[in-house]
Amino acid sequence: MSVEKFGPVRVGLLGIGTVGGGTFEVLSRNQQEITRRAGRRIEITRIADLDVERARAVAAGRAQVTNDARSVVTDPDIDIVIELIGGYRIAKDLVLEAIENGKHVVTANKALLAVHGNEIFAAASRKGVMVAFEAAVAGGIPIIKALREGLTANRIEWIAGIINGTTNFILSEMRDKGLAFEDVLAEAQRLGYAEADPTFDIEGIDAAHKATILSSIAFGVPVAFDKAYVEGITKLQSADIRYAEQLGYRIKLLGLTRRRMLDGKVQGIELRVHPTLIPAKRLIANVEGAMNAVMVKGDAVGHTMYYGKGAGAEPTASAVIADLVDVARMLTADPDNRVPHLAFQAEAMADLPILPIAEVETAYYLRLRVADEPGVLADITRILADARISIDAVLQREPEEGEHQTDIILLTHRTIEKQVDQAIARIEALPTVLSKAIRIRLEELN
User: Fold this and answer.
1) CATH 3.40.50.720 domain range(s) in the chain
2) Band of the pLDDT at 350, cuts 50, 70, 90?
3) Would you state the pLDDT for residue 351?
4) Where do you find CATH 3.30.360.10 in the chain?
5) Are 270 and 355 spatial neighbours (Cβ–Cβ below 8 Å)?
6) DSSP 8-state class, residue 442
7) What is the dotted CATH code of the domain comprising 143-309?
8) How many angstroms separate the CA atoms of 9 and 1, rounded?
9) Of 120, 231, 272, 445, which one has the greatest count of Cβ atoms within 10 A?
10) pLDDT for 382-440, tens place per residue?
């Protein structure tokens, strides 16, 4: 099929900041390769940005620039709208209006899809257009395509991902340099890895948006960000990172979604983001700095892992342009046989609940500050045994000279979280336990 057989695909770009600028640059630089792969030329013909002067400087006369985004999404000459504005409200209105006007949409907006995805995908289905979002999760790593297409023969058992580069950089620095969280956060902000307001990153919200999208694709359920368990890294202490190392583990902020089985039946879906101990021998435990990685376990393929840059202008642009190419291919193929947005038909969603954190099953790291007295460990282990919690390993730190208190660290086998909650309440009531227990979840990722 010759490229000349079809005219160019005309694209409107909303937002030409870091990712938008990268998209415009990569598309221009690699136009010949992209055209060959897409089967037709893809051209960004209109750009909307509030900073018109900056947008004109980037476009350099190669596209029409405006500050009116609505004029782009309603333009009858535009085939695809790329939404790179971010946020919920304005982006949602523009995406829905683009869909209503029969435009295909490419977006990197994970927050928008995690919160309003069900409405957006339903609107796209009614209008017969595509919403593509590879860039919304893990930047340049093609994890969406892997789940939707490459692993489509598999029943996905679980997905575990380091999907926020800011928090991974902070945890890597805390481990390598023994620094406190606050000190490393300040360094991350100085280096540009963390925003001036880093809340979405360090509180786990950004990772939860991405985990929500992955969960929907993997398990055929509606997006359910409001039901995700979200815990960030702000309370992590250097002591726990050090103890984890001594026990053969590393702590990562993990986005995890799992199909929960009991007696051969699916009970529901776990969807959670929190600091997690991972065995140091696992590949994903050795992902350092601002890099991302996603592990997927399928029943047929077993374990697979996807690694790369999760953010940045050109890595994210790589994913945006891959979506543009997919849509361009579909425009020249049978439109009734395109890959569904979430890799399943909207009318065939699974009716599976997202399990509350109290019902989640995992292993645990517990650190207890206790009086250095005989019988303390016996009292603690008895309470755990009463709660049917099995201990995997114990580490007891020798007290410093002149001290009369010490740390006890326990690793448990897998158990239900509510049983751990009940046991911790009883342990903290012991007169020999001198502070609140530190609890971090642990995943072997077998």
Assistant:
1) 3-140+313-348
2) confident
3) 86
4) 143-309
5) yes
6) E
7) 3.30.360.10
8) 16
9) 272
10) 999 999 999 999 998 888 777 889 999 999 999 999 999 999 999 999 999 999 999 99
- CA–CA gap between residue 113 and residue 107 (Å, rounded): 9
The amino acid sitting at 253 is L
CA atoms of 306 and 141, how far apart (whole Å): 7
**Does residue 210 have an active-site annotation?**
yes
What is the CATH number that goes with domain 3-140+313-348? 3.40.50.720
Nearest to 136 by CA among 152, 118, 153, 113: 113
CB of 34 closer than 8 Å to CB of 3: no
Catalytic residue, from 103, 110, 145, 210: name it: 210
Q: DSSP letter at 200?
A: H
Residue 197's pLDDT is 95
Ranges of CATH 3.30.70.260 domains, the chain: 360-442
360-442: CATH number: 3.30.70.260
pLDDT of residue 339: 67
Residue 375: burial class (beta carbons within 10 Å; 0-12, 13-18, 19+): exposed
Angle, CA 324 vertex, CA 311 and CA 39 arms, to 5°? 135
Contacts by 68-73 with C-beta closer than 8 Å and gap 24+?
A: 69/14, 69/94, 70/94, 70/97, 72/12, 72/13, 72/14, 72/46, 72/47, 72/48, 73/12, 73/14, 73/97, 73/98, 73/101, 73/103
Answer whether 10's CB lies under 8 Å from 45's CB: yes
Tens digit of pLDDT for each residue in 66-112?
A: 999 999 999 999 999 999 999 989 999 999 999 999 999 999 999 99
- pLDDT tens, residue by residue, 109-162: 999 999 999 999 999 999 999 999 999 999 999 999 999 999 999 999 999 999
Place of tokens 């902070």: 170
Instruction: Flag whether pLDDT at 286 surpasses 60.
Output: yes
pLDDT in tens, 157-187: 999 999 999 999 999 999 999 999 999 999 9
**How many whole angstroms separate alpha carbon 308 and alpha carbon 306?**
7
